[in-house]
Amino acid sequence: MTFTQSNDQNLSQFVASIQKLNVDDQLALFYFIYKKMGDSVTPAAPGASTASADIAEGLFNQIKEKSHEEQLQFQRDLINKADNEYTRMYGSMSDTTKLLFWYRLAQGMDSNVISPMPPNYELSSESKGILNQLEGMDFEQQITLFRDYVSPMGAEPKQGAEV
Fold first, then answer.
1. From CA 106, how far away is CA 66, in angstroms rounded?
2. For residues 45 and 96, is the Cβ–Cβ distance under 8 A?
3. Taking Cα atoms as reference points, which of 19, 26, 20 lies closest to residue 123?
4. Mean per-residue pLDDT for 36-46?
5. What's the predicted TM-score (pTM) here?
6. Is the Cα dihedral 103, 104, 109, 111 positive or negative?
7. What does the alpha-carbon distance between residue 134 and residue 150 come to, in Å, rounded to a whole number?
8. What is the pLDDT of residues 54-93, one digit of tens each?
9. Alpha-carbon dihedral 95, 100, 104, 109, rounded to 10 degrees
C-alpha cells in the first residue's frame, strides 16, 4: 500500500487494518509505535495546547491510581468503546487531547505507573507489517493516522453531563 498526503482513503484503510487487530494486539502495536517513534510523535503534535495537556493529564492521573489490571481493562474499554465514566471522559476530549492522553499512557507504561508490556513481548506478524508501513510514512501522515485511530475510541459523553 502506498501512501500520499492527498489520499485520505489509503489512511482510512490503514486505520481500518489496525482496528481489525484484536484489542491486545492494537494496544501492543500502539505501544511499539510510541517506542519507535515517540520522539517525533509527541505532545508537540500540531494543535496541542496547554489546555489539552492539562485535560489529558487529568484523566491520566485518575487512571494511574487504579490497579494495573484496571488500567489494562480501561485501555481495552477505550478500544471496545465501552460506556463508563472514564471512557466518556475520554470521549469528550478533542482528537489532539486524545493523542496526548495515549502518549501519556505509553510514558506511564515505561515507568511502570501504567500496566507495562509483558517482558519479551513479540508483536504479531500482522502488527509488525503495520508498524513497518507506518515507519515509511511522513510525519503529517503519521499524526493524521494516529488521530484518526484514537478519535473514535471511548464513549460519547452523556447528554447534559458536565465533563
1. 16
2. yes
3. 26
4. 59
5. 0.85
6. positive
7. 15
8. 899 999 999 999 999 999 999 999 999 999 999 999 999 9
9. 60
